[in-house]
Amino acid sequence: MRTAEQLRYLVLAAQLEGRRQWSRALRPLGLTPSQAEVLRVLQDHGPASVGSVGALLVCESGTNPSRLVDRLVEAGLVQRHADANDARAVVLSLTAEGVRHADQVQELESAMYEHLDRVAGPDAEAAIRFLRAYVEGTPVGESFHLREGQI
Q1: Do 43 and 106 contact (CB within 8 A), yes or no?
Q2: How many CB atoms lie within 10 A of CB 72?
Q3: Cα–Cα dist 15/20, whole Å
Q4: What pTM was computed for the model?
Q5: Are 33 and 63 in contact (CB under 8 A)?
Q6: What pLDDT, on the 0 to 100 scale, is given for residue 62?
Q7: Which residues of 103-117 are buried (b: 16+ CB within 10 A; e: fewer)?
Q8: CB 39 within 8 A of CB 98
């Protein structure tokens, strides 16, 4: 198998395995990975509009932030309210229960990051450089840069 082919399939396999493990970790909270990401975006960057939240999401393409938000509002984790500067605009924020869930997601993330640090070891920086180059100039790459505060 060529090196490029190995990279392709290993990136795909790692993404699928990571998503499977993350979904399993979130199951007790009743959240999907995309819903957990919305909670964390609002925790780190909120209150925010649906558009602003959507721009920061790195979850799979095709994810509709409005539908994600609707489900989280129905679950009592996110609330909508009028923007103080524009009564026509809607701002999203976490409810008290949403804050508790976001805190639990953050704890799960910390455990996952510790595991990734152990697995990657000294090769982490090279992997990060490769993955940054791979997503550079793509919509998901732009979302990633927004999340890290580079744009």
Answers
A1: yes
A2: 23
A3: 9
A4: 0.84
A5: no
A6: 55
A7: ebbeebeeeeeeeee
A8: yes
pLDDT < 50: residue spans in the chain: 150-151
Closest CA to 77 of 94, 57, 54, 65: 94
- Let me know: does 50 contact 39? Beta carbons within 8 Å: no
Query: H helices of 27-88, where?
Result: 33-45, 50-56, 65-74
Q: How far apart are CA 55 and CA 63, in angstroms?
A: 11
pLDDT value for 140: 85
- Tokens in use for 41? 């975006």
* H or E element that contains 94: strand 90-94
What does the alpha-carbon distance between residue 42 and residue 105 come to, in Å, rounded to a whole number? 12
Distance CA 32, CA 25 (A): 10
pLDDT of residue 63: 61
